[in-house]
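for the recovery benchmark. tokens below, seq after
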């Protein structure tokens, strides 16, 4: 099983320069320790993920300080962007990194994000899947027709040309079974998460994805079997007690921030907004306890070894280890060192 590093943290305003320094330091360490990839998201206007407005921009910086680790968008909200611009930006990163890029396409979910493209909100799912196919064509060097400034249809080939012949693509899912099956039909890899679903639910979705992928027509450059990547909050401590003591407070604070962000989404209804502080605290504690029971890599090396073996048995090919949920930089680095040692032992 591949192990990667994922960033998606919630941060206090005003500490952004230090956050970027930490990302560079942690990524260099992950590169040295042999992790497969580093994932950076696209988020806008929220506490959660506030330092990640453009994964291509940050990946370009990471390309210049790393040698072998892959640089992936986890995720890129495709309906917010013109597919030509996506192809251009990631071709730059691909050249800077000598072919180490990958992109996971998301449909987008938070209504506030779409102040950048308000007309794309209602049909964001359809737009994302349509433009994913366009992105594949542009990356392959095909001319694609678009409307120019004079209202004419013109054929355009994106420049610069990428270093790699094929752009590795994932589809991001928050858990909707339809998205798992759509990813299979499009023959993309899939980026999901363990949180918010049971092991049995996740097993069913992975099975449906595998079936859809196997039945789908071949796409140029795609492998016969797709990659299932699952995000999991990660801190490998010296013992279960130490790991949970260090990670407990930061993770609960992160979960509270995430629920608060959901409450401001106009498309989600008002259920989350109606929660009192006491109810929010109870919900956060319940989520934390449930997550410790299954789906995280929070614990001793032995506990995390068992969790990784369980995820592999489930059909997971790669774990994107979410490390920046509130721990200090030194703690993250120490946890990665122990995780790398664990990977070598497996």
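predicted aa per position
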């Amino acid at each position: 099983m591949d192990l990667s590093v994922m960033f998606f943290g919630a941060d206090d305003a005003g500490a952004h320069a230090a956050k970027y320094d930490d990302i560079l330091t942690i990524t260099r360490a992950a590169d040295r320790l042999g992790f497969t990839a580093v994932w950076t998201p696209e988020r806008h206007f929220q506490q959660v993920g506030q330092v990640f407005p453009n994964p291509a921009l940050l990946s370009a910086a990471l390309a210049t300080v790393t040698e072998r680790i892959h640089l992936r968008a986890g995720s890129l909200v495709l309906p917010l962007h013109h597919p030509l611009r996506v192809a251009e930006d990631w071709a730059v990163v691909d050249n800077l990194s000598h072919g180490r890029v990958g992109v996971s396409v998301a449909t987008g979910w938070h209504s506030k994000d779409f102040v950048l493209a308000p007309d794309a909100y209602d049909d964001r799912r359809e737009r994302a899947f349509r433009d994913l196919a366009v992105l594949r064509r542009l990356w392959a060097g095909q001319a694609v027709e678009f409307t120019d400034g004079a209202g004419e249809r013109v054929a355009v080939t994106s420049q610069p040309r990428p270093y790699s012949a094929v752009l590795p693509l994932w589809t991001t899912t928050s858990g909707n079974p339809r998205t798992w099956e759509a990813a299979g039909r499009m023959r993309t890899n899939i980026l999901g998460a363990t949180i918010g679903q049971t092991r049995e639910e996740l097993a069913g979705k992975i099975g449906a994805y595998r079936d859809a992928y196997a039945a789908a027509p071949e796409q140029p450059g795609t492998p016969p079997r797709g990659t299932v990547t699952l995000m999991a909050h990660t801190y490998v401590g010296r013992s279960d007690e130490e790991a949970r003591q260090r990670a407990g407070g930061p993770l609960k604070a992160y979960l509270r921030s995430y629920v608060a962000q959901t409450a401001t989404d106009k498309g989600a209804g008002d259920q989350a907004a109606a929660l009192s502080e006491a109810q929010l605290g109870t919900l956060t504690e319940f989520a934390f306890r449930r997550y410790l029971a299954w789906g995280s890599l929070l614990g001793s090396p032995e506990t995390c070894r068992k969790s990784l073996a369980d995820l592999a048995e489930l059909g997971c090919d790669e774990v994107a280890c979410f490390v920046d949920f509130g721990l200090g930089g030194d703690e993250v680095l120490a946890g990665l060192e122990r995780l790398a040692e664990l990977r070598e032992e497996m």
